[in-house]
Amino acid sequence: MPSLWAAAPGTSTGTPLPVAPANADAWDWTRAAVIFLVAISIAQLARRLLARRLRQEDDEHRAAETLGRVAGFVIVVAGFVYALSALDVRLGPLLGALGIGGIALAFALQDILENFIAGLIIQARRPFRRGDEIRTHDYVGRVEDVNLRTVIIRTFDGERVLLPNAMVLKAPVENHTALGQRRSRLFVSVGYRSDLRQVKTVLESAAARVTGVSDRPEPTALFEEFGDSALQVSLRFWHDARSDTEVRVRDAVGIAVKEALDRAGIEIPFPQRIIWLGGETVGSEIDLRAGGARR
Prior knowledge:
Layout: E1 3-6, E2 17-21, H1 26-57, H2 61-86, H3 92-108, H4 110-125, E3 133-136, E4 139-146, E5 150-155, E6 160-164, H5 165-170, E7 174-175, E8 181-190, H6 196-208, E9 220-226, E10 231-240, H7 243-264, E11 272-276, E12 283-287, E13 293-294
Antiparallel strand pairs: 1-2, 3-4, 3-7, 4-5, 5-6, 8-10, 9-10, 11-12, 12-13
Helix pairs in contact: 1-2, 6-7
């Protein structure tokens, strides 16, 4: 089917631009219009269905709307190209010119496009959601928003941090609240004369009585190492994943552990040193609690 070619404005012959074929009849135009309208209808339907499906999995409507619009835009563009092909329009030269311009534009907007695509990936894969507490790039805080350019974090010091999506996508991300619970460890030093089995029982019982400590998994005390002046024991307990809860629970567990050790007569020793004088096997202990007095 022969096609007409229009000259570019301002030139005599110009660069050929594809236009509708000269012998396109009303049926061809009608078919192209129907194809384009159907594409628009499918795009709107796909956008609504995708947004509705994402809303069922997440209450962040902005992400659902964004992904729905992108999907709709792709369908409309595909429908427009198919409609032109139904008119026997030669798109090769035009697509070639657009391709060269698109490459130049992509280089100029490389950072913007990188963050845009990274934002789509983050919103589609959902490594974290609005309200989650995360750690990335040495920043720790609560996620306030995820848009197509940045991830916005409110730190626990009250600072608002905007991280480019590409940086967040490439870096490791710790999601502290994704599983609902977190485990904390409290290190306790006891004297070498202490009964470790009794120490473990006292520590576990003290932590279990603290409000906010989860009973499943139960608190567990484990021996760590032989220190210079004391035996090192770690008390592990689970609690709500939010950082404000972690701080309060750790404070309460520390108080409960100190009181329980005092009641049981278990000493939390100060650092001690033994000094050997003149090569003789006579030891003099320096008790740091007495300001370095020899005994």
